[in-house]
Amino acid sequence: MARGHKIEQITEVPLIVADDVQTITKTKQAIAVLKKLKAYTEVEKVKSSKTVRAGQGKNRNRRYRQRLGPLVVYKQDKGIVRAFRNVPGVQTMNISRLNLLQLAPGGQVGRFVIWTQSAFEELGKRFGNAGVSSVLKRRNGATYHLPRTVMTNTDLARIIDSDEVQRVVRAPSIKPRKTKRALYKKNPFKNFQAMVALNPHFVSLKRRELLTAVLKSKGVAIKDEQKRSKRCARRSAAIAKLQSQ
């Protein structure tokens, strides 16, 4: 009912009918069965929900959209598929070929299913139960078992807050959590310290560049300065030689 199925008037859930339904071959007989089961309201809901699809999908062989009606699961097809195939929204499926896309359209469980008696009785043989394995179904050559929950109590909040668990767990840490900051990669061509870390000789190169810039700002060329220093050195050496004589 939460998915929109109109099943307020049916007698029971799951709805199981006799195997005689598998022998009907006419659509009017199928409609009569649905009306007798008080499930024809579901078909009327499907009819009223038919609308034209929005977008270009209407040009791609899917012009109309409508809701899904009941799903009829049978064991032997003695005409039941032919009888129900023209009823809007009604789908049929063999018990040996159960399809999850039909049992739970759109990934949401809760579809209105009509079972025949033989199909419903075969569920236990095909899938088994919590204590009995399947008779007909096998997985990778081994006997099939229904998935079972490992935990007997799935209320995790109650388990965590229980005295037995809280008695043995560690006390919560009160130390402030250190935030791990992202490393910032500096550009050596723009950052002096990063360049020095890569090339220690860069300090002397930078000094020489600064000295050259200072000398050029004073209007003194580097070569002239070197020549002057050499002349001064020769002059001082000559004076020292004369004094020694």
Could you describe the 3D structure shown?
The protein has 245 residues and is an alpha/beta fold. Among the domains are: 115 residues, Ribosomal Protein L4, Chain: A (3-Layer(aba) Sandwich); 42 residues, no CATH class. The strands form 3 sheets. Strands 1-6-4-5 form a 4-stranded parallel beta sheet. A two-stranded antiparallel ribbon has the order 2-3. Helix 3 links the parallel strand 4 and strand 5. The longest helix has 23 residues. The protein is elongated and about 145 Å long. It starts with 14 loop residues before the first strand and ends with a helix. The mean pLDDT is 86.
Short descriptors:
245 residues; alpha/beta; Ribosomal Protein L4, Chain: A; 4-stranded parallel β-sheet; two-stranded antiparallel ribbon; 10 helices; 38% helix
